[in-house]
């Protein structure tokens, strides 16, 4: 009997597919910490669909193709501190978080580090989209430039989907594109690590002490070790403030470790800075020779306010070649700020939103998700 | 910088090693269900040592070498129903469980199945030992012939140990022998499946409905699918009694499935037979054409009473070549039964146990573990 014949038997019920998928996810580390009162080591499969969601090929390919341009855009914007300041100063007036980041960026720009061409910056960005109906256009919701998450678990979900479609009669595995997010994130961090080139150094992962999405982070640490023999150390911003210092060369030392790369999986929300200690930690990293993923400037370049400004006519063209700007603009959904309610355009937008609330989402200026009003 | 240089940095504290090992175990499916009030899908790493336990090579190699002989012994004993009956009839008088198994074996022997040379039997046996001090001898504690567990998780623990020793400066990975228990269990079941050769059939895994050690079982099911495209269906003995029947050819059908192999991961304890329905399920399997892992005869051959009898002078030689019997006997610790307290040898043993309780373990006749008195 050939395996193919038996595969016909294997058309599974949704319940069987769910049970098999839960088992597969749990066997392959597609998990999150259980949290609550359970032991810290307890986990449960991450939320997932059992099968891939059909998605039109053209906008998918377009999104893949535009990503390098978006990365160049973030880099170009991050280097224009005058632009960042002009765009964000009004937000900074009522938002201490943005004000602190701007201040830190100013200090960095004023320091010698900025003029040192050896500085290594790493961008691990996630651009989020929604497929608009009925236009069929893919519209960018936001571009994450700090602590972009679910690259690891997303890669494993793609493997699960390939596994499930291979088993499901009538669906081929060819339809599930490979998802290299985990591998490429690891390559990026390892490349930065090697570029910084410090003996016996580590990747410092800046984390929350109680992180439910631990395994999405851990897969990156595991792969850094397994593929590159690079060790990762997890610390909170408060840990870094307590244990960290800069040596004479400006290298960040944290406890016994010399830090080649600071990789943020925390620090993107005001909640992550309950006291000035956390800002001390951030400042220490920012002023060190460590490669930052990201710098404060990259962080600022990803704020909604900056994205809103970039969407205005002629602004993208300050940072990108005309052709690239044209490509990027295709993905821009409308973004409207509310800081100047006397502005006629803002008034028009607010009126439209009150009349047709179903067309709008109210998003905060900062990163983190889960803070939207529909 | 070479990876080797960096490995020197990686001598980890016990706490770091523990955290890394918990993460590794969770990423690689070395897990058990959390149980209790937690969601059924919640898991936690299996109990494990962080590093392999040093073990003398000679007894290890001897244990590996004697295993095929023990397997032949089980097979030979299982075919001698008169021997099984004579050894177990006294236990059957006060133990319904053993009585039911003996009765089922008698019925099987009396049926046409026994004379059908095409019958396929699969043994997945686990021989448990303790290293005796100060003799240095490896002594067999018991031989499990039904539902031998931890083959899968044991294999993954070996991978963890190889991983940890590779990272730990001063320890090489060569010292951790490969553990092929999972792979070989899967090969055994697949071989049986192919020998039975029924179109569109499945492996029926006989399980408890609420199984904490689910993933040790699931790895076998996953590998059967991934390597051989053989599907596994989980059913309790009660499910099988309800959904099962024999077709005209004596093939076991269970729901929509035709069963090529019945693989028991339950059924070894009286607790698994709360009503006669479970015995109905066992009987249905036993009387079918399905390959059994194990048959009732194999199950009986693994009872303590039989092992105790085999340890008596001259008994092994009824079933094995003299040279093989000599090898096996080296691993026999003393096993003493208590059913005849008037027997002078039993009286002597009991007196010795009362005087020196530290030398003895009181074990029940049946399988399952956890029922010992020290």
Automatic annotation (TrEMBL), chains A, B:
| Nucleotide-binding found in the keyword field | yes
The UniProt annotation places ATP binding at 142, 304, 363-372, 374
Q: Name one GO cellular component term.
A: cytosol
**Looking at the record's lineage, which domain of life comes first?**
Eukaryota
EC number(s)? 6.3.2.3
User: Which residue intervals define the domain Glutathione synthase substrate-binding in the entry?
Assistant: 202-301
The pathway to which it is assigned is: Sulfur metabolism; glutathione biosynthesis; glutathione from L-cysteine and L-glutamate: step 2/2
Cofactors needed by this protein, per the record, are: Mg(2+)
Q: How is the cofactor bound?
A: Binds 1 Mg(2+) ion per subunit.
Can you say what this protein is called? glutathione synthase
Its source organism is: Ostreobium quekettii
């Amino acid at each position: 009997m050939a395996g193919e014949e038996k595969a016909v038997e294997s058309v599974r019920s949704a319940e069987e597919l769910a049970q098999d998928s839960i088992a597969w996810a749990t066997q392959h580390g597609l998990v999150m910490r259980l949290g609550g009162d359970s032991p810290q080591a307890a986990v449960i499969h991450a939320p997932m669909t059992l099968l891939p969601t059909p998605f039109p090929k053209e906008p998918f390919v377009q999104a893949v193709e535009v990503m390098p341009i978006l990365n160049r855009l973030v880099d170009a914007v991050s280097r224009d501190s005058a632009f960042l300041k002009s765009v964000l100063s009004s937000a900074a007036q009522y938002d201490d978080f943005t004000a602190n980041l701007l201040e830190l960026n100013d200090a960095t720009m004023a320091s010698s580090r900025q003029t040192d061409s050896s500085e290594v910056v790493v961008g691990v960005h996630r651009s989020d989209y929604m497929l608009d109906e009925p236009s069929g256009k893919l519209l960018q919701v936001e571009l994450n430039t700090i602590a972009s998450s679910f690259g690891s678990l997303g890669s494993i979900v793609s493997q699960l989907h390939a596994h499930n479609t291979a088993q499901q009669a009538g669906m081929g595995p060819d339809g599930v594109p490979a998802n290299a997010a985990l591998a490429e994130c690891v390559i990026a961090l390892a490349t930065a690590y090697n570029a910084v080139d410090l003996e016996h150094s580590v990747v410092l992962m800046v984390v929350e002490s109680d992180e439910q999405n631990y395994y999405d982070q851990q897969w990156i640490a595991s792969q850094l070790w397994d593929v590159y023999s690079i060790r990762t150390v997890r610390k909170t911003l408060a840990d870094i403030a307590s244990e960290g210092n800069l040596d004479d060369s400006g290298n960040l030392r944290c406890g016994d470790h010399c830090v080649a790369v600071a990789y943020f999986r925390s620090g993107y929300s005001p909640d992550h800075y309950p006291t000035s200690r956390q800002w001390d930690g951030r400042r220490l990293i920012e002023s060190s020779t460590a490669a930052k993923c990201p710098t404060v400037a990259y962080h600022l370049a990803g704020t909604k306010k900056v994205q809103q400004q970039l969407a205005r006519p002629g602004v993208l063209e300050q940072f990108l070649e005309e052709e690239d700007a044209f490509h990027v603009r295709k993905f821009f959904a409308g973004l409207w700020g509310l800081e100047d309610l006397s502005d006629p355009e803002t008034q028009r937008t607010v009126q439209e939103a009150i009349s047709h609330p179903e067309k709008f989402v109210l998003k905060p200026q900062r990163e983190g998700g889960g803070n939207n009003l529909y």
